[in-house]
Design a protein that fits this description.
Layout: H1 3-6, H2 9-20, H3 24-34, E1 38-40, H4 41-47, H5 52-65, E2 68-73, E3 76-81, H6 83-94
């Protein structure tokens, strides 16, 4: 048995979501965004006691995997949950054995 034979697209997507959600700050960002339709990066900076550059890196990870999306409304960026990908992630984790 080799790696390719046990790796499916579903497993790869589940692992990517898990990696992106594998940090408490990112989970907190997802919780904040889940409780409202969208919010601005300034609000997230106020809510989280971390450097803006660190927050930016966490937002980038979530955005790269598609769990959130950002819209530039100069001079701010508005972040929202990507509802379609959130639903996919929820389904993928529900299908995870033992969960």
């Amino acid at each position: 048995m080799n790696f390719k034979s046990v790796t499916t697209e579903k497993l790869i997507r589940r692992a990517r979501y898990a990696k992106a959600m594998g940090h408490p700050v990112r989970m907190h960002v997802l919780e904040l965004l889940s409780n409202q339709s969208c919010c601005y990066s300034g609000y997230l900076s106020d809510e989280l006691p971390i450097a803006k550059s660190t927050l930016s890196q966490h937002l980038k990870e979530l955005k790269d995997v598609g769990l959130i999306h950002g819209e530039i409304e100069s001079p701010k960026i508005k972040y929202c949950i990507n509802k379609e990908n959130r639903k996919e992630a929820q389904q993928l984790f529900k299908q995870f054995p033992g969960m």
